[in-house]
From TrEMBL:
Presence of keyword Transmembrane helix: no
Top-level division of the source organism's lineage: Bacteria
Family matches, as InterPro entries: KR_dom, NAD(P)-bd_dom_sf, Sc_DH/Rdtase_CS, SDR_fam
Pfam families hit by this protein: adh_short_C2 (PF13561)
Name of the molecule in the record: Glucose 1-dehydrogenase
Length: 266
């Protein structure tokens, strides 16, 4: 997949850890210049930017809270001033604030919705405006590509996580409605729905033998995913190799959405 994204600029929100970090790395490996957004941990985003540059690529890190419209605008302004524009936008920032439903605070509900859903709204809106402003750049069949980071929980209900599941269920219709609206302009909008990927967000689910055994019962393919699995999917979805893929959710989950509990007659 080397050079599949040459001469293109990618912005990845939430790129300082987990899936965002892995996606940024993969996009850079495929030849894109990468803008790494972080919220509160500059060190790892800056270190990844340095690493990309040492390998001959282009990258820089930019701070922004994606739930704040003015900070999102500034983030896009930074893309323009450094790289002229942006071609691929991965709206990835997301967080979990888990609790039993009756104990969930309004703050935890709102914080999760603000980053996971409103954050993607603001990021995608700025992306569409930027694609329109600069017009076709001749480096892709599309005017621009937006990848929304969803989750298997856009379809799998998740007790104890109603805020998170609601945000990802929202992403499903947000992505499809936006894809339908902007496809005539050749803007491609799609989602990736990761299953259990080995990242800090779900450490409790894989870092002990007992937890891992329980988790693997939910994954027919028999292994926990790696950020690189999502990175590879993102490279494809961002490239012209997927030019006819519009408004689709790509599940990258080792079969987690296949109702594994029914593998043996239910
Ligand atoms: C969540 C993880 C979880 C995975 C599968 C993801 O969207 O962020 O915590 O392990 O879904 O349940």
């Amino acid at each position: 997949m080397e050079n599949l994204l040459a001469n293109q600029v990618a912005l990845v929100t939430g790129a300082s850890s987990g899936i965002g970090y892995g996606v940024a790395k993969s996009l850079a490996k495929a030849g894109a210049a990468v803008v790494l957004n972080y919220h509160s941990h500059p060190e790892s985003a800056e270190q990844l930017a340095d690493e990309i540059q040492q390998h001959g690529g282009s990258a820089f890190a930019v701070q922004a809270d994606v739930s704040d419209p003015s900070q999102v605008e500034k983030m896009f302004a930074a893309c323009r001033s450094r790289f002229e524009s942006v071609d691929i936008v991965v709206a990835n920032s997301g967080l979990q604030k888990d609790s039993a439903f009756a104990d969930m605070s309004l703050e935890d509900w709102q914080t999760v919705l603000a980053t996971n859903l409103t954050g993607q709204f603001l990021t995608a809106q700025s992306a569409v405006r930027e694609f329109r402003r600069r017009g076709h750049r001749g480096n892709s069949n599309a005017l621009g590509k937006i990848i929304c980071m969803s989750s298997v929980h856009e379809v799998i209900p998740w007790g104890g996580h109603v805020n998170y599941a609601a945000s990802k269920g929202g992403i499903q219709m947000f992505m499809k409605s936006l894809a339908q609206e902007v496809a005539p302009e050749r803007i491609r909008v799609n989602s990736i729905a990761p299953g259990a990927i080995r990242t800090p967000i779900n450490k409790d689910a894989w870092d002990t033998e007992t937890a891992l055994k329980k988790l693997l019962q939910l994954i027919p393919y028999g292994r926990v995913g790696e950020a690189e699995d999502i990175g590879n999917a993102a490279v494809w979805l961002a490239s012209d190799e997927s030019d006819y893929v519009v408004g689709t959710t790509l599940f990258v989950d080792g079969g987690m959405t296949l109702y594994p509990g029914f593998a043996d007659n239910g």
